[in-house]
Design goal:
Layout: H1 8-17, H2 31-43, H3 57-64, H4 68-75, H5 78-90, E1 94-97, H6 105-111, E2 118-123, E3 133-136, H7 143-158, E4 163-165, H8 171-181, E5 186-189, H9 194-198, H10 201-208, E6 212-216, H11 226-239, E7 242-245, H12 253-263, E8 271-273, H13 285-288, E9 292-293, H14 303-321, H15 325-338, H16 344-347, H17 362-365, H18 371-383, H19 391-398, H20 402-414, E10 418-421, E11 426-429
C-alpha cells in the first residue's frame, strides 16, 4: 500500500517517471515525454493524479502521443511502488514532486519545464529553499586547489551561507566536509546512490543536526553515469545564489560543460572562477564566457557582501559593453523571463491555475516611452543617422521593435533633433542634433 504522505499527484508522477522494483518491461517517461503529457493536462484542466483513474488514460494517450499500453503499465505499478516507498521511508528517504508546495522554487524559476519531475531527499527539508555558493571542480584536485576550496567553504560557514555541491570525490566532498566541520550547512545534489550516502556516518550526524540536505533527481539506488553527473550540474547552479569553479579542464569534463551551460543561460546565476598562475588550463577561458574572477583577497566578515558587489559590477560592465538599445532590450528580456509562464510548474501547484492574460509589451501598449529610456537610446539612434536611413533598416541595425522605434523617431522629430525625409521615407540627423 502506498504511503499516505504522498499526494495523489506525486504518486502518479512517481509511477510515470520513477524507477523502482525489478520489472523494467516499460521504460519510465523521460523529462521530454512527461512535459508533453503535462501540456496536455494543462489544456484539459486535469492534474497528474487524475491519471490514476483508468477512464482518463485513453484520452491522455491520444493527447500526449504516448502509447496507451505503456501508460497503463507504468500507472499499474502501485504494488511495486508501495514496497519501494516503504523501504525508502524506513531509511529516511522522502520524495517530492513538482506538484508539492515545498518543491524548490529555484528550480521552477531557473529551469522552468526542465526542472526534475521528482526529487528524492534525505535531511533538512527547510534547506530546499536553497541559496549560498555552489562549489564545483575536478575530482582530481591539486593541493593548492584543495586548500582554496576549504578556505572558501569556511568563509561560507562563517557567513551563514550554504555550500551547494555534488557530493563527488574531489572538490565536491572537500567543500561539503569543510563547511560542515566549520559549523555551516550543506546541500549535496547527488548523481548516484542517495541511500548509501545518507547512511554514511558523517552524513548521518550532519542530517541529525539539521545541517545537511542530500537531494537527487535519480532513484535512491541509482548508479553513476556520465549523463546523470552532467544533469546534476545544472541543479547545483539553480539551487545557488552564486557558482564557483575551483578547477576545470579546458572544454573537457562535467565541470567545464556545466559552467559553460550556465554561463550561456539567459537567466544565469553569477559564476566565479579561481584564477592565478597555478590553476588548471580550463579556468581562465571561462572568463571569456562571462565568468567572474574570484577576488585575490577577502574580508572574512564581509564575504557575502563582496560576492554581491562583484556580481553586480560584472553585470553592469556587461550592460555597458552592450549599451544603448541592446542594453535596454536585454533588460526587457530579463523582466519577461521573470513573468509567470503557463508551464508545468503552474499546472502542478495545488490548484489548477488558468492561463494568464497575454502580456502586452510596453511598446505596443504605450508607444510614448519614459523620458529616461528615450534619453538613453537617442544618442544611439543619432549615431546611425548621419545619412538618410529608412525605419526598416534602422530597426534591423538596432534590433528593436518598429513600433517603439517609430515612437522614438517621432519624438526626436518633434524636438528638431531628427529630420523626416520623403521619397523614399527616411530619417536623418538634424544639424542641431546631439553630438555623440
Amino acid at each position: 500500500m502506498m504511503s499516505d504522505c504522498l499526494t495523489e499527484d506525486t504518486k502518479a508522477i512517481i509511477l510515470l517517471c520513477g524507477v523502482f522494483g525489478k520489472d523494467h518491461s516499460e521504460k519510465p517517461l523521460s523529462l521530454t515525454e512527461y512535459s508533453s503529457l503535462v501540456r496536455w493536462l494543462i489544456e484539459v484542466k486535469m492534474r497528474p493524479g487524475d491519471l490514476l483513474q483508468q477512464e482518463n488514460i485513453t484520452e491522455a494517450s491520444i493527447g500526449s502521443d504516448i502509447d496507451k499500453q505503456r501508460l497503463e503499465s507504468l500507472l499499474g505499478r502501485g504494488v511495486q511502488l508501495g514496497f519501494a516507498v516503504e523501504e525508502w521511508e524506513r531509511n529516511g528517504i522522502w520524495i517530492i514532486s513538482r506538484s508539492d508546495t515545498d518543491y524548490p522554487a529555484r528550480y521552477k524559476k531557473h529551469l522552468k519545464d526542465k526542472s526534475p519531475p521528482l526529487l528524492f531527499g534525505a535531511g533538512n527539508r527547510s534547506l530546499l529553499k536553497g541559496g549560498g555558493l555552489g562549489i564545483v571542480g575536478s575530482r582530481n584536485v591539486d593541493q593548492t586547489g584543495e586548500s582554496f576550496t576549504r578556505q572558501v567553504a569556511e568563509f561560507c560557514a562563517n557567513n551563514h551561507m550554504p555550500v551547494v555541491s555534488g557530493g563527488a570525490r574531489g572538490v565536491d566532498q572537500i567543500s561539503m566536509t569543510a563547511a560542515l566541520e566549520a559549523g555551516g550547512v550543506t546541500i549535496g545534489i547527488l548523481a548516484e546512490n542517495l541511500l548509501k550516502k545518507s547512511v554514511e556516518r558523517s552524513a548521518h550526524h550532519a542530517i541529525a543536526d539539521g545541517r545537511l540536505l542530500l537531494l537527487s533527481p535519480y532513484h535512491p539506488h541509482a548508479r553513476f553515469t556520465v549523463g546523470a553527473a552532467m544533469g546534476r550540474n545544472k541543479l547545483i547552479y539553480a539551487m545557488s545564489d552564486y557558482g564557483l569553479v575551483v578547477s576545470a579542464e579546458h572544454k573537457k569534463g562535467g565541470t567545464w560543460a556545466g559552467a559553460e551551460e550556465e554561463l550561456k543561460r539567459k537567466n544565469a546565476v553569477p559564476v566565479f572562477v579561481r584564477t592565478g598562475d597555478d590553476v588548471p588550463q580550463g579556468n581562465s577561458p571561462l572568463l571569456d564566457l562571462g565568468a567572474i574572477a574570484w577576488p585575490d583577497s577577502i574580508d572574512r566578515s564581509n564575504f557575502r557582501q563582496l560576492l554581491h558587489d562583484l556580481a553586480v559590477d560584472a553585470r553592469d560592465n556587461r550592460a555597458k559593453q552592450h549599451s544603448g538599445l541592446f542594453g535596454f532590450q536585454a533588460a526587457r528580456e530579463t523582466v519577461a523571463a521573470e513573468e509567470p509562464l503557463l508551464t508545468t510548474e503552474l499546472m502542478e501547484e495545488k490548484t489548477v491555475i488558468a492561463a494568464p492574460e497575454p502580456v502586452v509589451k510596453a511598446e505596443a501598449q504605450k508607444p510614448d516611452c519614459p523620458t529616461s529610456i528615450y534619453q538613453a537610446v537617442l544618442p544611439i539612434i543619432l549615431n546611425q543617422l548621419d545619412n538618410p536611413t529608412t525605419v526598416e533598416k534602422l530597426a534591423e541595425t538596432l534590433n528593436v521593435n518598429k513600433t517603439q522605434l517609430n515612437a522614438w523617431l517621432k519624438k526626436a522629430v518633434d524636438e528638431n533633433k531628427i529630420i523626416q525625409l520623403s521619397k523614399p521615407e527616411s530619417y536623418q540627423k538634424a544639424e542641431s542634433g546631439i553630438q555623440v
